[in-house]
Amino acid sequence: MNASINQDSLPQSAVQRLVGFIERVLFHNRVAVLVFFLLASLLLGYKALELRPDASFTRMIPTGHPYIQNYLKFEDVLRPQSNVLRVLVENPRGEILSREFMETLREVNDKVFYIPGVDRGNLKSLWTPNALWTEVTTEGVRAGRVIPDTYDGSAESLALVRQNILRANMLGSFVANDFRSAIIRVPLLENDPETGSPLDYRAFTQSLEKEVREHFGARGVNIRVIGFAQIIGDLIAAARDIALFFAITVVLISTLLYWYCRCWRSTAVTVLTCLLTVVCQLGLLRLLGLGLDPYSILVPFLIFAIGISHAVQNINLTMSEMGNGATPLEASQRTFRALFIPGTTALLADAVGFITLLVIDIGVIQQLAITASIGVFVAIFTKMFLLPVLMSYVGISPRGLRQQQKRAQSSWPVFRRLSAVVEPRYAIPLVLGSLLLLGVGYYARQDLKIGDLDAGAPEFRPEARYNRDNAYLLDHYSTSTDVYVVMFRTPQEQCSRFAAADLANRLERTLLEVDGVESVQSLYRAMRFNIQARNEGNPKWAEFSRDQYVMNNARSGVSSELVDPDCSVAPISLYLSDHKAETLARVAAAVEEFAGRHGSADFQILQAAGNAGIEAATNSVIQHSEKRMLALVFAIISLVVLWEFRSLKVTVALMAPLYLSTVLCEAVMAQMGLGVKIATLPVIALGVGIGVDYGIYLYSRMEGFLHQGLDFRAAFFEALKTTGTSVAFTGITLALGVGTWVFSALKFQADMGLLLVLLFIWNMVGALILLPAIAALLRGGPFSTRHTIRNPA
């Protein structure tokens, strides 16, 4: 035992010497430290002012997934079914077939056409040249534009347009079933073809809002917009609301912090340092050429919360030292000495929680991980170096010291009773109860789903404008907004051969039998119609021919969105009843099974495009990455804790409450109907990273008292009087801070806030009650420890 202790003392003393060296450099050069942080803050603050919201379609999708690679390979022909907007123009006064409204529809079409970022060649509406009709007459096949060149707005012309809409089968797809609205389908370019710069979704949606929605809305026309770009635009537009909630949270936390310490000086310095951390984080993002996408825009608050969590520990220990007669400088030095190792370890654990998100191959989540990791990196400097130096100047006011003494005395009876949880008569039932709760959590989380579970955009509340627009489209049109595109690939100029057409036809019939598939659109459906049309419209001829001349003739004149120019890729579009994960999984499995049985080197059946196909790929990546991410989070944080305390039993005691919190969080998600997706997945990892702070601070304080010879309960009691108070205050304060998010107009922010509230509270309770109970029970076990605990009992 002695040899073990001596060997362990060598690296420990080296660490203490390093801490002592940093302490001397820091506090002997306080002015230089403040000047350095002032200059860095001014520079990074200036750069932060240049930061703008940033979004990208490709960052929202898992570009490494085979489905997405297939989509990107054939993006030009698939774009009309993937990154596409539907601009719905409604006549609130009646049908669209009036001279005035048709002219308004033409103006809307022209306005949309000239907005930068629109793929003008694939734009389609009643007024575009690619809106064509075809019919079979006794004289043969006739075709023409839906709105002919001879259109003049007269009653006869309007009657002809109505007839052409029915001929073109556009009722229910481009024209509402009740003829009261029409759709302009707007595919978007991800990059500007001239400059190569990525599409600015903020500028695009602002132009659409001002030039189309507001302009024509003032003329009594209802404009509704559905699509990915509009979702991103609405999220960016909600940044002001997010900033408002951030401000409310800062004010609330500042008020609670002042109520806790009753010292304006330390409160102001703490909040200022935490805000400075956020500003420097944003400035570094700008220096690195990064931006804030809609899903990372909440990260600055998380960094602020981390800063408050660590700063409260600093204030609490400084109060305790000054209450024992130390000067502000001496108290700050002792606080730095006591908190540098556990504080840095806790911040490293936070960083691990963020960095493990990089294993998820979705750009927006990876950028969130980078953004948050930069924030933690800044927090190490501001919390570990700047805050102690500032506290050495401002100290704690006499009123604050009196409040500390009063609170400590009034809290002692409570802490004495709480410290009893380390006794076996309380610890054993507590641990057994936690195991029972873990089992309940496992049972409740069985219903946890992957992906979106609601119609429309789950980022918004059901009553949000976007979801109302989406509901209107679903109610008044036959075709779904959830499109799953399968790519049928053949050698060049082979797509219209009988063998290819027959195989594609069998694929379509198989997929129409899958639950959730409502209809199919493809080259081969158009070819069968053309063959039938060229044979007097007789349904008996609606089949493919082995005569290649007939097949080539049937392909002629088919819309470019149904086949690429060299007849090698023919998208098969499946219109789904919804985009739930189960529906997408059924479709993907059916396509995979058919491709495995019938695919060949010449005829490849590839997945997937369309908004539903891309979501299926996203769900697949999240499903396969979630467990791996959580395993990495717990494994790496466990190693960090093990390195800090050199004890397996302490590691188990710290990590067990976090695991229980994670399971309970997933159980709550399942019961609330929240799927694991881009907006919710990071919360789980962040909760583990942030939650471990409580345990590290509390046990490191306990360890100090154990080294002084106190028994376990006495050490826990002494730790509760200092660190325990700040842990409880931090958990409750942060929970109240994010609790305001439930009133946000953004559903994903409200959901994130609720989950964070639960994690903050559960992790706090776990650190104060479950951690010491588990540690006490494990003391006599086979686990090795760094120190010998003296227990007089």
Automatic annotation (TrEMBL):
Q: Which domain of life is it from?
A: Bacteria
Q: Where in the cell is it found?
A: Cell membrane
What membrane topology term does the record carry? Multi-pass membrane protein
Residue ranges spanning the membrane: these are: 31-49, 242-261, 268-289, 295-317, 338-360, 372-396, 426-444, 629-645, 652-672, 678-699, 720-743, 755-778
Kindly state which keywords UniProt assigns to this record, in alphabetical order: Cell membrane, Membrane, Transmembrane, Transmembrane helix
Tell me which residues make up the SSD domain: 271-393
**InterPro entries named in the record:** MMPL_dom, Mycobact_MmpL, SSD
Where does it primarily localize? membrane
A Pfam family it matches: MMPL
User: In its UniProt entry, what is this protein called?
Assistant: MMPL family transporter
